């Protein structure tokens, strides 16, 4: 229920003052997710795959990861979508390690790295902070995830 | 830069002492409608001038990067149960980068619009456009981050926001020989990617992780075609709703081995 903690903290006047927030007196409480926006969301692209192709061609470093206990946008959804990019494989599927534990599995394609994060849900850094940190550090360094 | 000083956060209530700097405040992205986006920058805990800049976006759409990214995931602070104080996140990503949390689009968290109809017709396009304008103006306020290695990260519906913003930055940069927004790449987690394939993969996960019965799985495959155009048939909706309401049980769908939050 951790998002309840944020609902308490960020609605405190002293916190808003310290953050220079809510300076115009927004006529509603701060909340983690806006019902109005999600219910009235207009344009939404059906697929991001064409954009991925364009940005891969532009040479950006692109990593996609999946916490493997999420059922809302689960690992099989992402894998099935990415598979339709038909990217050539650079480094074949292998388990990556966090300490002496399997942190997940990964495969490196031309232009994109995919990785799962074991026992992590939708918010990967919330449930597996150390594995998420290793993932991020490898991404920043442009290095493949540790093989041992 | 004068505004930069005004945005400096001396300390948050209940915060432990830290060595890194923090800044937060508003950047106007549309004067006519009065749209302004709220940001919170927590600089790297060591040698911030040598570290890259990372923009973090949560999804929803409509959810706050301050609520999730900053306070539950990658930020340096965690909020305690009563909301009275903060404690340090041992695996904060600000060990490796300067973290910029943006509440986007207007209407999310502290970000606001003075034109209430904006809240009823927001979408991918305007969100990406406003985020690009935010970045350009934010860089003018924080010129020390111009040309710095820049990455974008996010999760969930930010599987749309992140590549869409990356694409706009890439196109914007084409006009400059040395772009100030030095975009190097992006990383996304549990990202909404393709409606058709995501949906098929989602139902597969439900079945392979024993969240639904064979009977339900078969009826979903029979009645749902998952292509956005036609929308879902009543029988498809019925089968999916039966799965969620009668077979999932009282779980946290975002972390299926976790009990639901009461």
How would you characterize this protein structure?
The complex is a heterodimer of chains A (148) and B (262). Chain A has 148 residues and is of the alpha+beta class. In chain A, strand 2 and strand 3 form a beta hairpin. The longest helix of chain A is centred in the C-terminal third of the chain and has 13 residues. The model of chain A has no long low-confidence stretch (mean pLDDT 97). With 262 residues, chain B is of the alpha/beta class. Chain B contains seven helices and twelve strands. The termini of chain B are far apart. The mean pLDDT of chain B is 96. At the A-B interface, helix 1, helix 2, helix 3, helix 4 and strand 1 of A face strand 2, strand 3, helix 2, strand 9 and helix 4 of B. Strand 1 of chain A pairs parallel with strand 10 of chain B, so a sheet runs across the interface.
